[in-house]
Amino acid sequence: MNQIARIREELTKRGLDAVLVTDEKNQRYAAGFPFTDGAVLVGKEKAFLLTDSRYIEAAGQQAEGVEVRLFDKERPLSALLKQAVAESGAQKIAAEDQKLSHAAFLAWEKKLGLRLEPAGNLFEVLRAVKTEGEIASMIAAQRISEQALEEVLHIIKPGMTEREVAAELVYRMLRHGSEGNSFDPIVVTGSKTSMPHGVPGDKLIEAGDFVTMDFGCLKDGYCSDMTRTVAVGSATDEMKNVYDTVLRAQLAGIAAARAGVLGREIDAAARRVIADAGYGEYFGHGFGHCLGLDIHEWPFAGPRGDQPMPAGCLSSAEPGIYLPGRFGVRIEDVMIIRETGAEVITKAPKDELIVL
After folding, report:
1. Does 4-128 carry CATH code 3.40.350.10?
2. Model-level pTM?
3. If we measure between CA atoms, which residue out of 22, 27, 12, 25 comes closest to residue 65?
4. Which of 141, 205, 290, 295 could form a disulfide with 224 if both were Cys (CB 3.0 to 4.6 A apart)?
């Protein structure tokens, strides 16, 4: 899928003639092709994808809405871009100032012999609102992750290491159609569950431990993201209470989510539940982040989320409580923000503390 038409609409709104796209994810968004190691130029009438010999055949087969051209030693990328700019007739051209270093931005100006405008949040705004095609890819990625989780839940046992569980999740996602991980999986057990971004290691799972698994995969380049915390064999009353508090907080945040609501208002709805239960100081991160081609995209549903959530964005819903040196709980789903509320696309069970 490509988004050339949407980009052109945004160019017109911003008084721009064209945009030079060098970021890999933005190139994929524009042309529907994941690998260029080159550039994409989108103008109001013409669009170009410039790549090298490694990708030229595949680009010709897969890229949509763009003219594919080959650059090499005799015809360098900068020369092809200058030619594409001339053919496009563009005068006011933007570049991704939020992705390029200052030196790289200036270098492109020098290579092209023209002044580039900052693209600002052009792609950030466009990518926030997903098409139904993009949503379908993200749901497909979510189903792959859920299949992997269901299988792994049947094999987790005392004596396994965090690293082994992480490897099983990755292997099973690949078996079910994943194109790769949307991020390095987090699998932690016991006292390490109090670390929101703990790294899987050789720590052994023990009976009575919590195990937190935060993972996701890619489908058509789009990310899934989910977290489940389970207890192995048994759970104390305190563990059950913390789990129930996190679940109630997540449901409160989801209930508050709809298009036009500020991200911080969604976060506040969940945070109140945790604070009222006496665990306010143990919830340090935000309620959620949007995702798509990247695992973290704009806007955010956190304490500093001062932007209204747009209809059609997909956001995580992942409150947590982390008691240092003891244990932690996080539950994460992904929801589509609609005008009427939030539509949760994650189907993995969470209503009860899962005891294995």
Report:
1. yes
2. 0.94
3. 27
4. 141
